[in-house]
Each structure stands twice: as C-alpha cells, then as structure tokens.
Amino acid sequence: MKITTERLPESRVLLEIEVDNERLEKAMNQAYRRVVNRARIPGFRPGKAPRAMVERYLGRETLLNEALDRLVPEVYEEALEQEGIDAIDRPELEMPQLDPVIVKATIPIRPRVDLSDYRALRLEAEEAPVDEHLVDETIEQLQHRYATVEPADRPIELGDIVRVDLKTTADSDVYFDHKDAEFAVTTADTANLPGLAEGLVGLSRGDSKEFAVDVPEDATGTTLAGKQLTYDVQIHEIKVEHLPELNDEFAGMVGEGYPNVDGLRAKLQADAVERAQSEARRRYEQKALDALVGGGTFEYPAVLVEREIDRVIRENTSFGDKKAEMDRYLAAIGKTETEYRDQFRADAIERVKRSLALSQFTDDEGLTVVAGDVDAEIEKMVGDSGASAEQIRQIFGGDSGRDVIERSLLTRKAYDRLAEIAEGKPVPPKSEPEATTSEVVIAEAAAADKPAVEPRAANASPEMGDPSPAPESTPESS
Description:
This protein is an alpha+beta fold. The protein has 15 helices and 11 strands. Strands 6, 7, 8, 9 and 10 form a 5-stranded antiparallel sheet that branches. The chain folds into 3 domains: 2-112, Trigger factor ribosome-binding domain (Alpha-Beta Plaits), CATH 3.30.70.1050; 148-242, Chitinase A, domain 3, CATH 3.10.50.40; 272-477, Trigger factor, domain 2 (Orthogonal Bundle).
C-alpha cells in the first residue's frame, strides 16, 4: 500500500493510505467466505453459493463493506507503525474513493511543548502570615465543642440552640422546609437565611411566628440577594450552651490532653504556623506553574480540551455521562449542549496547558520515581492508617494503586524542583532531551490506547465516534 503523511496544526497528522488492488481482492475473498455462510441464496445450501452469485444476489457493495470492516483497521494500524505515528485518540476518517481504495485519517498526536528558558524563572517568596486572633478563635471553637447543653425555660436569646419546624419561601418558591431543625441562633449559623436569627429572638417554647425579610441586592454569603423571604416557624425547644472555663482542666480534656492552657496555646500556635506555611508553599508552587505556562508555547489537539470538559462535567454534575439526564437539564436551563460545554472551555484550556507544562518540565528535568519510592510511600500510608492498614495495603498494592502513587510522587517531585528553581536554589544539571514526551503526558493529559477504527462508506462523514474519555486527572490535581 502507498502511504503519504502531512503535518497539520494543533498536533495532528493527515495520513493518506492507498490500498492496492491485490490487498483489496484478498479482503473481498475473506469477506465472501464470512458472508456466504450466513446468506440465504435461492438454489444453494448455506455456504455453497459461488462468490459471483453472492455478489449478484446481495450486491458487490455488501461484500465491499464487509471487507472494509476488517481492512481499514488493519491498514490504519500498519500505516501508524510504518510511519512511526503515535496516535493519542481516534482518527477522523474519510474514504474519498473506492477505486482504488483511499483512506484519509486525521490523527491527533502527542502535543508539542516548549518551556523556553524556564531555569531563569525567579519568584519572590510567599509570606505565611498567621492571624493573631486565630488561636483565640480556635480555643473558642474548642470550648463550643466541649460545651454542655441544657433546656432553657425562657425566651430565645442570641447564642441559644433551638429545635424548630421551619419553612422558608423566597418570592413564593419554597426554599427550605424541615421539621425538627436544630441550629444555633447566630448570624454565622444562619448566614444562608438572612434575618432569621433576629426574628427568632424573644420567642418562647410553643410559639409560632410568620415574618418577612427583604434581602438587600448587595447581600453576600447568600444566594437569596434581592429576594423577599418569608419565614414560618414553630418553636419546640430552647437550649442554652454552657462553655467550659478556660483553665488547665479544660486543656487536659482537649485531644490527647495538654498539661496546661499555655501548652494548648503553644500547640495551636504551632499548628497555625504550619498550616500557614503549607498554604503559602502551595500558593508559591501554583504561581511558579503559572509562570512556567506563561513562558511556554503549546501545540495540542483539540480533543484534549474536550476530554477535560468531559471530566469536569462528570465530576461536578449528577448526570455525568447520562445523555438523557443531560438533555433534560439543558432543556431546563435553556441551553444547547455546545453552549453548556463552552462555559467550561476557558478553564479546560488552562488546565490542559498546566498539565502539559508540568509533564514537559518533568521530562526536561529527568525526574523519575523508582519502585522503592512507591514501596516506601505505601508503608508510610499503612503505618498511618491504624485499623485500616491491611485495606490500604490491598488498595494500593496492585498495579493500578501503585500507578496512582507513582504519579502523585512524580508530581510532588516536579513541584519541588520547580519551586527550587524559582527560589534560585542550586539544582542538578538538566537531563538530555529525549525524542518523546514523558509518560506523564500520556497518563495524565493524553492517555488513550489506540482504538479500533470503524470504516465508513465512501464520502461518509469523517468523524469516527466520540473522543475517548477525559484523563482521570491532570498532574496538578494528582
């Protein structure tokens, strides 16, 4: 067969395959042997009609389509191997002519990423401030956690805990309807129901009340801005909370116990500092990755973005891949599927670029994870899991579990190296560039086994089925 290739934009290759007549004739004979056994030709027993009679009775097109069902995938795979093309998704196929048979395949291939001189990247360190009131707020939360509660035979006051029947309507639509709802009468605990706490103050056990609240247009912390709420409430029980006194006895009750209040404060302060430093480190790493993406150039097939949109929809909606449920949802919100998907497109493009940048960075830096690293991480997880140790070992001891850990460790190495570069710290020399991109790109951003190809008749629509599912995750989210 004759093969020609042409590089296209967006990391695609146009592959044209011309099948010689001898190869086609062989495929037609094989197709005849399959068809004749199931065909019912008048005057002949099953499997005994000659090929000429089968073609005359069923039509040559029937044999041709049967032949192409097997032939097109075969010649496509052979052409990929012969030309050294590493397809990452299904091709778009067309067959512009059948004499001779010509197959044209537009194939998405691995992306091209150039990160430029990323080793010159420098960023200022992120500050890790700790709110001076944070320890006091945490202690107050602990006091509430260890508080005692008892019924109160008096009108409701701010800070009380109530058990009520509550129905809330927003512009005549029922927003909340619950029997025996229990909550604290504070603006913080009723933030999504503006004005409720204030309206409950002064009511007694057994009271019922209906009242309306106009929520300002610029109200924050609620989805009800600009609406009028109507509350219908019946009070069943009022309870008062008694906070434990902040003393050494209380410190001994918290967690595994502390010798005194100063010891408790010191631990809470250390925890706050550690959290602030971890958050600052994550912000710094993400800022470094943003800079890496901003300095790079990317060429990638559009299917990667479509996969990422698929992944976002699966993870953030209840209908996932269920088309009927999606159609009902789209009808309810008055959008087409294209309009709905487009709202995720900009974010999906950014995610794809970040994934590709981190993968290419991993290649360029020659970062790897060895089996011993994975073993050590599994043992650490097992050691931290207590009674679930054996279950953790079973989950992550298999190939798929180890692969998850390997990707996670490789991602962590990449972020650590990127931060070191941005901080100006000494790092090992770059590895020699390789001919192909890393397995991280394959696994995280462009993974797809070479799919079976379904042939179409001549001049049929070139689109060959839906793209493969989106990757399970991107390196930044591993």
